[in-house]
Amino acid sequence: MHGDPATIRKILTELGDTWAVVGLSNNRDRAAYGVARTLQRFGKRVVPVHPKAETVHGEQGYASLAEIPFKVDVVDVFVNSSLAGAVADEAVAVGAQAVWFQLGVIDEDAFARTREAGLDMVMDRCPAIEIPAL
Predict the structure, then answer these.
(1) Which residue from 107, 92, 80 is spatially nearest to 123, judged by alpha carbons?
(2) What stretches in the chain show pLDDT beneath 50?
(3) pTM
(4) What is the pLDDT of residues 45-56, one digit of tens each?
(5) Which residues face 123 on adjacent strands?
(6) Are 7 and 121 in contact (CB under 8 A)?
(7) Which of 14, 30, 46, 61 has the fewest CB atoms within 10 Å, i.e. is most exposed?
(8) What DSSP assignment string belongs to 6-61?
């Protein structure tokens, strides 16, 4: 299962509150924008990661995970499935504790690699849907 309730709860309540949101920009029409706002309402620090490195919801953006000068706890991935595996690998490299692939973002090999590296992972789920239920 790619999103068992225990792992979802652990990521959302125990692993830390700094979330890098890959694919987050100031485009209000994109799902990442609203999900990031919801995560902030639940006390998460949301760090935008996007090639434009825009400041979003009051937080400085970065062009890549490697450019973030502090530890991130969770990497929330809003990119096409074909690009998501590389993001998961980068999350492992920067020392994140968990990776969260959003609804529709599916890469079975990346899921297996990330879990083998010791990170918690959820795939094809949305934290903005899950967190209010906790």
Answers:
(1) 107
(2) none
(3) 0.96
(4) 999 999 999 999
(5) none
(6) yes
(7) 14
(8) HHHHHHHHTS-SEEEEET--S-TTSHHHHHHHHHHHTT-EEEEE-TT---BTTB--
